[in-house]
Backbone:
DNA sequence: ATGGTAGTGGGACTA
């Protein structure tokens, strides 16, 4: 089973790129973030034509998440965090695996309201997992975490230290989620490579490879033995008019 | 500390 996460930064603006990608790259499950569209206006049809079941939790102009799956969903939950009014979570079960897709807040500068909201969001998600998932559950947490975990996950740790996405407070918060026994799939196969998933549109960041690894696929220990590969696909980031993120993919048996 | 770009929706906001 191939599972991917991709912050598409508007599903409608990226429809052509997304469909072409799925035609060329067979994925079983794909988690999308930043749809920027309400459920009613989500482009369901072209995905259905490619054989996908579609579960959407959308919002106008901002946020919005979806899960596409070739296999049928046996359960769909939206807004799994109680105060999630921003449409940032959707969970679906596919073939006995619970898949939780999360678009974490970007946050703000230290001390600002959005900064505290972001830290609270990490804590709420940690609590949700603690309360709702058992150690033996087959579970995948994936999405745009909006934080780089370690120095290896940013292009210039000295320059970026203390900026949004690489503050000590958010790194500590995300570590609380990793410490629930979840496995950072990319690092199982690429232990010490500098690999990024996001590059700012500005300042030719992608050309200079000035990026950050802020998108993750984490798997529960019950899935550890089934993990066969994980990688970042840079190809779609090279296209004109593409998202500022590129997909992360994990392969399970 | 600022600016650089992009999407939405037709200005300001988020990222």
Residues:
């Amino acid at each position: 089973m191939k599972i991917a996460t991709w912050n598409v930064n508007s599903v409608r603006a990226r429809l052509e790129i997304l469909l072409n990608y799925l035609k060329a790259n067979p994925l079983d499950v794909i988690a999308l973030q930043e749809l920027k569209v309400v459920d009613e206006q989500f482009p369901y049809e072209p995905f259905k034509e490619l054989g996908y079941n579609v579960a959407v939790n959308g919002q106008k102009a901002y946020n919005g998440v979806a899960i596409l799956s070739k296999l049928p969903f046996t359960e769909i939950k939206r807004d799994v965090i109680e105060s999630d009014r921003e449409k940032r979570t959707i969970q679906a079960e596919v073939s006995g695996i619970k898949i939780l897709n999360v678009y974490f807040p970007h946050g703000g500068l230290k001390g600002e309201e959005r900064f505290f909201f972001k830290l609270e969001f990490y804590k709420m998600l940690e609590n949700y997992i603690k309360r709702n998932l058992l150690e033996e559950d087959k579970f995948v947490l994936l999405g745009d975490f909006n934080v780089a975990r370690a120095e290896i996950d940013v292009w210039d740790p000295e320059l970026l230290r203390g900026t949004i996405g690489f503050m000590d407070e958010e790194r500590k918060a995300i570590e609380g989620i990793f410490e629930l026994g979840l496995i950072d799939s990319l690092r199982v196969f690429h232990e010490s490579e500098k690999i990024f998933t996001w590059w700012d549109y500005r300042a030719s960041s992608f050309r200079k490879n000035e990026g950050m690894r802020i998108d993750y696929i984490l798997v529960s220990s019950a899935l550890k033995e089934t993990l066969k590969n994980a990688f970042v696909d840079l190809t779609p980031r090279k296209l004109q008019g593409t998202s500022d993120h590129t997909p992360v993919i994990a392969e399970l048996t």
Summary: Residues 106 and 146 of chain A are 6 Å apart (CA to CA). Helices of chain A lie at 15-24, 44-49, 113-132, 157-160, 168-178, 185-189. Chain A has six helices and 14 strands.
